[in-house]
Amino acid sequence: MVFLTWWRGNLRAMHETLQLLDDFLQALFFKVGFFCAKRFWLTFGVSLLLGALGVTSFLLTLNAPTPTETTGQELWFPDQGRRGVAEDQEMAAIFNTGPHPRPEFFYLTHKDDQNTNLLTPDFVNEGLKVITTIVNTNTTDGISFSDVCYKPFGTFCVEDSIRLLFPTAALGIPVTETTLVPVLAGMGQAKSEDVLGGIVYTNATKEVVQEATGFSVFLLTDTKKVEDARKWEEAVIDMIVNLNNQEMGSFRIDFSTAQSLAREVEKYNAPYRNVDMAAVATVLLIVLFFLVNISCYDPVESLGRLVLGDFFTVILAIFVAFGIVALSGLEWTDANILIPMVMVTFATEDASVLYMCFEHVTDKQQARAGDPGGPGALEGGASYAGINGGWVGGWVMNVIVFSLGTLSIFKGARIVSQWLLCTICIDFLFEITLAAAFLGLEARRQARGEHDLTCCCQTRARKKAVGDKALGAEKENAEGVPPPSHEVAEEEGREEEGHEGDLYSPHEKRPIKWGHMLNPIFSLRHFFKHTYGPLLKNRIFQIAATLTSVGLWVFFAFGTTRVVVAQTIDDVVPPQSYFYSFDETGRTIFPELHSRDVISVSIGGRELLGQEADTIYWDDPRLREKLTMLERRFTEGPWHREAMPRISSWYTDFNAYCAGYEPCRIQLQEDEVSFSKLFNATLSASTTLQKVWGPNVVLDEASGKLVAGKFTFTTKGVSSDEQISTDFESDRITYLREVQDSAFGLGTQVLISSPKMRIWEWQLQVFDELFWSAVWACIAVALGAFLFLGSFRSALSVAICVAGSTLAIFGTFGWVGKRITSLVNVVWFFFLAMPQVFTVAYAFKHIVRANVSGFDRAAKALAFVGEPVLVGTAIVILATLPLLTRGGLMGIFPIVLGTFAGWATWHSLVVLPLLLGVLNEGGRKLGSGYTRRRNNQDGPKGAGFVTPQQSGEEGEWEGDKEKKLQGVEGLLHQEEAEGQREAAVGKGPAAETAPVPVAEAEHQQTFEDREREEKERARADAEAALDEDIDAGCEVPSDGEGFV
């Protein structure tokens, strides 16, 4: 108990401390919003200038001539011509993306003199014995080396004084019959000209080469803008010499994930050949939404004009975003164009939801004040509809514009469509269904007027009607008259509800207006008010809504198990691998390169010779002539003598890696080559052998045994047809799990796998990682929401909504087959879930409790929106810390932090002032509806709208349980007052009674006490009847349709 008291005291102190920050941020954003609303034309003019600048810069960028360096973004096969690689099998052939390790590709070099020719018959024979011995090694637990490696162990290739950047050309190596290289990848013996620098060219077809070796020949060039071979040749030479421009005729390979190359190629090629199913689904949803608008409508005269005005505001805001991009000097990339669009879209949605909450209160307030359906109410309804056009109507229009724009201009239509589809799933599927379950299960609490995230206000007329029915039933029971049935009372209550001054009557049929089709918000309002609300009174629908929500949770949870987390190079490659030194080596040779981006160019005979034959012969004199000319021009530069030795070694390793192998360089200390020396050099260089057999394994030449600590390998011989046995046991599965737990984040695939390791095991680990990350996110969100909202129930509701949105995003990713390639995708779904939910919760905290009008509306709205955006940003960063610290992802934390900070600043200080200023200007032109609402906000007694007021304590309502049945109390006090008035004027029972003695006075006092007790019982029975009425039907108050 003491601990709980201390903990609650600390939370209260933290909340009071954060309240100071709350007040400061509200004051700051209030000033900004008031300035933008008061100086509307200044804000509008500055925004228009920025928009003009953005449009001009964007159009100039689109009309600019395409440079030649952007034409090299295609993967080419010599035997099939122009073709983009998008299939997973083909990509797996080039980049080993499966759960199996890369077969190691050995390079034998001499430490002192790299020009020493190591291709001697003795050397080849000894090397063949070594590789055969390793491949045929078995352990005592029955796991052979073929279980460890997906393919045979490796290939011996000799780096013998390669002097060119192009290892496929390898000029200067004499091609003779004695330079035979054993190719142990399924092809048997092959000539040296077939294996040059890790790329295989044979007279066989591409399918045969791919099936035999596991990788394909690929050429990274585009000949569309090259008229002849000489122009192509000059372009390649210019690209090599001018390394400062890394996009010059090249294709940048991003090694951040193994699948990124395939996705990049697919992104640049697919939109020109087909339309993604996500885009089709988006268009179908838009059409369906407009069809719903035709059947569900409400009449507002100036609706179309206001919606079009809101649409113009959104377009202007997008152009302003373009202007800021132009002024900042950023490149016109897909991300820099799409991110402002998404930010503007959600800014519009947040502002519109905020206005919806406030305008619902003010409109109903005016209607209850005695002016139902009048000009003020109609204008207020028009303002309410027009402002909320940005929430759904403007949002759907944005979807249309973005879809058409991306399909016609941008190359990333698939990405945009998938994100829009995920947004639709979150906004219109999960949250609405989850809200249905909450509304159904929390109906009693809402009916009693308790404060919650989805609170609704009751009217005195409603309470008075319930009290009258309860007192009437009590009197009729006392007189012996049976009370009316529950159905009759409920029907009478509904009849009374229909005349309480609702702004839109549920029984009135209105003609269709064309402007209504432009604003889908009325469809949702009509649906919630006249369809969803009445259904919530039925217990069966509550159960159905709950089951639907649970079903969605299960559906998305199962979809989350299908999520594929792509691997980063840090996760896939062990620390002792060649690629860990890639950054340092690559930047030393190419200082212009970004991290893990590399220029890759391979020369193939087909482009050089211009022939259409599927067979390439390297002894073609024309090809030799071309390659010789390339070598001569390339080696003329002064930088060649300094950089060429390093480039040769580094780039050979790179090409081997691109071919699907792990580069493994073996340096011999002396010219004499023996089996033991070669075998020990191979063991020390092989990463895979060190993982399987352990480090520091050496072959004792005297005893013929492999010794490594306490483990001893016994060998029967060194011939190629004999096997090596071991006398120790190893637990492969345990080892795999240890590697998985220690080396990978987000459940990435294992380096060394075996048939015992099923794919679903690591997928379940992915789900486990995502699940606990979501749990931590919910805890962080709930704590932050509690500290800032001051209500544990509201904080819990926000946390549940965020958790559901998170799970829905992952489930959507899993079902549509989208890969999570980096933390950027993990962060994106918080954009979809967190700000809008937090904004709505914060709006209910402030705006529903306050009466705001005039210019203060825009300023207050900005204050109430800007702060939760910043607070939500801080909470999201806190929630993503577990993901940031897993699997070496901490390196991109500055990117995430900068993205959130920039988004919050842009959202709060630029977009919202513009939108609120324009909307406030439009609201002022509607007439005197705002003033009339403010002057008539209290209304006549008995019919006025009760606005909940904030009490002294945070998070509580002014009225308590004693005031919830004030309609009953008012009626009782009214009857008592009438009786006193009648007695005063000589009427009624009191006037007919003569003065009584003291005994009779005491008897009269006893009678009054008895009457008071009867009134208290009647009041208690009325409360019980109200509870029974709520329990039986779970009624939603007549004015509680403002949940949307």
Summarize the structure.
This protein is mainly alpha-helical.
Mean pLDDT, all residues = 46
Helicity level, as a percent range? 55-70%
Beginning-to-end CA distance, first to last residue:
41 Å
What is the spatial order of strands in the main beta sheet? 13-14-15-16
Q: Which stretches of 5+ consecutive residues score pLDDT under 50?
A: 1-6, 62-101, 112-117, 135-311, 347-416, 422-446, 448-464, 483-524, 566-620, 633-648, 709-766, 821-837, ...
Radius of gyration: 38 Å
Task: Explain how this protein is built.
Residues 989-999 have a biased composition (Low complexity). Residues 496-505, 1000-1022 have a biased composition (Basic and acidic residues). This is SSD domain-containing protein. The chain is built from 36 helices and 17 strands. It is elongated. By secondary structure, it is mainly alpha-helical. The longest helix is centred in the first third of the chain and has 37 residues, at 2-38. It folds into 4 domains: 2-63; 76-256 and 572-735, no CATH class; 296-458 and 500-563 and 766-935, no CATH class; 460-499 and 960-1033, no CATH class. Helices cover 60% and strands 6% of the residues. Strands 13-14-15-16 form a 4-stranded antiparallel β-sheet. The protein has a 3-stranded parallel β-sheet with strand order 4-3-12.
Primary descriptors:
1044 residues; mainly alpha; 4 domains; 4-stranded antiparallel sheet; 3-stranded parallel sheet; 36 helices; 17 strands; 60% helix; disordered C terminus; transmembrane helix
